[in-house]
Amino acid sequence: QVQLQQWGAGLLKPSETLSLSCAVYGGSFSGYYWSWIRQPPGKGLEWIGQINHRGSTNYNPSLKSRVTLSIDTSKNQFSLRLGSLTAADTAVYYCARVPIKIYGGAILVPDPDSGLDVWGQGTTVTVSS
Amino acid sequence: DVQLTQSPSFLSASVGDRVTITCRASQGITTYLAWYQQKPGKAPNLLIYGASTLQSGVPSRFSGSGSGTEFTLTISSLQPEDFATYYCQQLDSYPFTFGPGTKVDIK
């Protein structure tokens, strides 16, 4: 059974950088886009971005200037860094996966006829001085 | 960005009721829509993908339909464990946006 186990610092100060990692246990690592989603307290879900095993990334434009996703295929892990934090970045952060679809034998995209089918347990991040 | 709206935002229902939640997209997204259930303190759980395909392990009382800009999630007979918040998400174009959620509460 596939599991995503995430970790990282939970209490940060304004202007600091958030750093979270997510390890994948079981299943294919190359067959998915690996995603980050966040949820502010009492609010809805916001898609942050995704990365595949080749290091190809897609980011939410609202966060793109502050976000970096990276991947370590040797460890089946991927990571999120979010800089210049403010209180508005206080949220539960989740990692999740979405299956890859291959076009023309070479172009990898997240399968639009799918969804985020496995999620991490969530990490609460609080930004406060 | 594709904007998703959900209605209602809050729903009070009884065990055994038939419940329908609507998700509308600001532009056509064919059938590239997923539905999730989230319980307090837990990660969301995928229910439906491709607008109408039931995720493995999800009870058959859940169903999805729609295409283009209007989609529905139906629970045919509400069970106690179904009281939760439900979100739609589009995977048609970046960023992959979510709807604001529909909270289903006990009447």
What report would you give on this structure?
- The complex is a heterodimer of chains A (129) and B (107).
- Chain A is 0% helix and 53% strand.
- Chain A is mainly beta.
- In chain A, the strands form two sheets. In chain A, strands 2, 4, 5, 6, 9, 10, 11 and 12 form an eight-stranded mixed β-sheet that branches.
- In chain A, a hairpin with a 5-residue loop joins strand 5 and strand 6.
- Chain A is globular, with a radius of gyration of 14 Å.
- The model of chain A has no long low-confidence stretch (mean pLDDT 96).
- Chain B is an all-beta fold and 107 residues long.
- Chain B is built from no helices and ten strands.
- Chain B starts with a strand and ends with a strand.
- The mean pLDDT of chain B is 97.
- Chains A and B meet through strand 5 and strand 9 of A and strand 4 and strand 5 of B.
Helix-strand string of chain A = EEEEEEEEEEEE
Task: Characterize the largest beta sheet of chain A: strand count, sense, and whether it forms a barrel.
Answer: 8 strands, mixed
Rg of chain A computed from alpha carbons, rounded to a whole number of angstroms: 14 Å
Q: How much strand of chain B?
A: over 45%
Overall 3D geometry of chain B? globular
Computed structural class of chain A? mainly beta
Number of helices of chain A: 0
Number of beta-strand segments of chain A: 12
What is the radius of gyration of chain B? Answer: 13 Å
Number of helices of chain B: 0
What sequence of helices (H) and strands (E) makes up the elements of chain B? EEEEEEEEEE
Q: How many extended strands of chain B?
A: 10
Poorly predicted parts of chain B: none
The whole-number mean of residue pLDDT values of chain A reads: 96
Largest sheet of chain B: 6 strands, mixed
Oligomer: heterodimer
Q: Averaging pLDDT over every residue of chain B, what do you get?
A: 97
Report the helical percentage of chain B.
under 10%
Helicity level of chain A: under 10%
Give the neighbour order of strands across the main sheet of chain B.
Answer: 2-10-9-4-5-6
Q: Which chain pair shows the most residues in contact?
A: A-B, 25 and 29 residues
